[in-house]
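Weekly structure sync, notes
Attendees: PL, DS, HV (note-taker this week)

Item 1: threonine ammonia-lyase
DS walked through the input record. Source organism listed as Mycolicibacterium vanbaalenii. Sequence as pasted into the shared doc:
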Amino acid sequence: MKFVTIDDVRAAADRIRSHVVRTPLLAARWGDEQRPLWIKPENLQPIGAFKVRGAFNAISALSGSAATGSGPTDVVAYSSGNHAQAVAYAAAVHGLTAHIVMPEETPNIKVHATREHGAQVVLCAAGERETVAARVVAETGGMLIPPFDHPDVIAGQGTIGLEIAADLPEVANVLIPVSGGGLASGIGVAIRALCPQARIFGVEPELAADTAQGLARGHRVDWPIEDRNRTIADGLRSQPSDLTFAHLQQVLDGVITVAESEIRAAVRELAYRARLVSEPSGAVALAAYRQGVTPPGPTALIVSGGNIEPQMLRQILDESVPD
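Item 1 (cont.): predicted structure, written out as tokens:
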């Protein structure tokens, strides 16, 4: 098993610099006085989510890629949406054909956006995306770019940690959404190396809290896809791989779980107070912050994506209007 290092993350930053947005770290003046709040809005990336970082690093790092005149001309990915868009976008920039396998329950806004980037989308039943993707790889000869289970993907996501360390070196807490674990693994590697005083927390929906349970037991656990699909946070329904779980064991200080009502409230708070559109998966870190369980000190949280169905956003915003 190859663990990602801070040098890998720095190399990723060099590869992707011209393709991604160096998102600002926004001071949220309405945060708690004892825990000054800073928001990293990865929903401002070109495809509306952090996934573009890992996708560009993985595709750019392909040995003998089509960008250098040889190697594969096709890439394959499986994703509930944001990784799909990221691979489609990065593949188009590199002149590659993308084949993206997406679950049938994926929000239409994400399927449509993936196709808009020129990808060929293959829809599949819940829990079958890896199997279908393997078949597409066999049919096309394409290179598989997994959503989290790859060192280059993890290193690409870790570039967010580099930026947090540069902008807020005194950070005391970092809150990161957890699904497959690539984002928290990468950021964790960078923060551990550059801000060793910081405590790093993963955040999961209570309805998809397999990582929290697995870390408590000391080994990966499996939750049925039917259980994980209950959460509104559709981007957080995956489970860590052996690779990402091993990283999470090393870099996380704990996992905070949040209720569905807390996630919806966080979407509203980001819209009304931060003027940021967040999908439910992207809002879980704020939901965890609002529980008040983290230690005092400057706190940075990741808004991981903003690709939410307009109808869902309207419904959530209409549930409660702040004073």
